[in-house]
Write a structure and sequence with these properties.
The protein has a domain of 246 residues. It is built from 19 helices and no strands. By secondary structure, it is mainly α. Helices cover 81% and strands 0% of the residues.
Length: 520
């Protein structure tokens, strides 16, 4: 293309003379670690911003208004998921250069966004129907919110598809810069509008501001310039892999958002606001870890998908790191949720306390299971994830109504947690077959963090009952510090006694990051 270099040439130039080739295992490990650092930093920073934003909104806006926004986001997510092409995952998974496929993928994405916006604009008018559970005085507001939110479909589709190379080539430092600016735009605009005008429109305007910033920056950060071009052969090639991602996304959406739809339709928009807040606060820490690990390791595992010994070694390290981080976080959420809700939210949010504690267990299982989903995709078998999701969906359809009917949103949380726990062993079995691994190797990696977390929870409970029984910000901080210190101490002992090797893995990754800093 005239006027700019191709992404391929850009990345070839990035490989300086004397650097180890991409196929080098050491080089791939270093790039993965560095990528993981940037993605983790991005997610942590983003979630801190989001936490501040949601705490402010939760204490200013009414439950019904927050529920209205939840309705709009659910409708958008449903349309987006059910029309998913899976092309981005196919572009990342594909070993060969994908330059020739970019314009076709971008064109199809743009046509799709136009259709989605038209459908959403039309569907918004049904908000006045009783099935939507929207109070009559808020129907016009709901319709307006849904229609304006739909503009984000177009902004996302118009973004430069060239930034897919940031993930494909593990250049997450560039993605970090792009996303940080976009997220800052979103949060800053949202907080400003809600503090000045105290309206639910703050979230809508903030989301559009973030998407617009991301759109503009995508063309600043990458030289590719997409054109409207449709090559049906290229589209079919991407679809062969993408269809499984699409199918898995649809089933996964029903699994992760179907409970939201059920709560909305059965219990109303205020219950939806409570349930979504509980879900976000309890799942964000561990699911963020899963998201980071999946995002970074998918392209890395894809590059070694044919080398089973290396694949096994890499996967076990990924699982070990995921368990080491996710298990104690879930434990802290379970035991400190009552203190957190009382300190950071007002009394209208008290019903979410038991819901958060139950959902924290679910997020723990999901975070470790996410590593297997990445493995299945990396070896070109995303259909396994789709089939497991179908099984989960079937069980959820059986359990969700009686449990919600009996215990409200608490029953919904129990249902989705049970379903995940019942199906997860099948995923473990299939993952073990792919990497030729024994179950005992997996069990050791998970059992030690679980034991250390048990010790942590016991000590926190003892200190809460004996010394820190008052709910204050200082006591919450001290209890969390005691828990983290206990966990690290027990893990260190396990590392020496049972040869857990987590210390060695952490040292390896820190050495890579220090080396990167010294070479910059």
């Amino acid at each position: 293309m005239k006027g700019h270099g191709s992404p391929t040439s850009v990345h070839k130039q990035a490989n300086k003379p004397g650097a180890p080739p991409d196929k080098s295992g050491k080089n791939l490990f270093h790039r993965t670690v560095r990528g993981g650092f940037w993605v983790f930093a991005l997610r942590i920073f983003t979630q801190i911003l989001s936490f501040v934003r949601y705490i402010i909104l939760a204490n200013i806006l009414a439950l019904a208004d927050i529920g209205l926004l939840g309705v709009g986001m659910l409708m958008m997510q449903a349309l987006n998921t059910f029309s998913q092409t899976g092309f981005q995952a196919a572009l990342i998974q594909k070993k060969d250069d994908v330059q020739a496929h970019l314009d076709t993928a971008w064109t199809i994405g743009l046509f799709r966004a136009v259709i989605l916006y038209a459908v959403l604009y039309w569907a918004a008018s049904f908000a006045e129907l009783p099935i939507f559970k929207v109070p009559p005085e808020k129907v016009f507001l709901a319709i307006s919110i849904i229609r304006v939110l739909g503009i984000s479909f177009l902004l996302t589709a118009l973004s430069n598809i060239g930034i897919i190379y940031f993930q494909k080539e593990l250049e997450f430092n560039r993605q970090f810069a792009l996303q940080i600016i976009a997220n800052l735009s979103n949060v800053a605009v949202t907080i400003f509008v809600v503090l000045v005008y105290r309206t639910v429109w703050a979230l809508v305007i903030g989301k559009l501001a973030g998407e617009l910033a991301r759109l503009l920056l995508s063309y600043v950060f990458h030289p590719h310039r997409p054109r409207i071009r449709l090559d049906f052969d290229k589209a079919r090639e991407l679809w062969r892999f993408g269809k499984w991602i699409s199918g898995g996304s649809i089933i996964g959406f029903i699994m992760t958002q179907g409970d939201d739809f059920f709560v909305w339709g059965y219990l109303g928009i205020s219950a939806l606001a409570l349930y979504q807040m509980a879900y976000k606060l309890s799942n964000t820490p561990t699911t963020e870890i899963a998201h980071v690990i999946s995002q970074v390791t998918f392209p890395a595992l894809s590059k070694i998908q044919d080398d089973i010994p290396r694949l096994k070694n890499a996967y076990l390290k990924i699982l070990q790191i995921s368990a080491f981080l996710s298990v104690p976080l879930s434990g802290l959420i379970i035991i400190l949720t009552p203190d957190f809700v009382m300190l950071f939210l007002n009394e209208k949010w008290e019903p979410i306390i038991p819901v958060m504690q139950i959902l924290a267990l679910r997020s723990l299982i999901v975070s470790t299971g996410a590593t297997r989903g990445t493995l299945f995709r990396a070896v070109g078998k995303p259909g396994i994830t789709t089939k497991l999701q179908v099984l989960r969906l079937t069980l959820l359809a059986i359990l969700i109504y009686p449990m919600t009917s009996a215990w409200g949103i608490k029953g919904t949380a129990v249902a989705i947690t049970l379903v995940i726990a019942m199906v997860d062993p099948f995923g473990i079995y299939l993952g073990l077959k792919i990497i030729h691994c024994r179950a005992g190797e997996i069990l050791k990696l998970i059992a030690l963090p679980v034991a250390a977390t048990g010790a942590m929870l016991g000590l926190i409970y003892l200190f809460k009952r004996s010394f820190f029984y008052e709910t204050t910000y200082v006591n919450l901080f001290i209890l969390a510090a005691i828990g983290i210190g206990t966990y690290i101490t027990v893990i260190y002992a396990c590392d020496r006694i049972f040869d857990y090797r987590i210390k060695k893995i952490i040292q390896e990754q820190l050495a890579v990051l220090v080396q990167q800093k010294n070479t910059n």
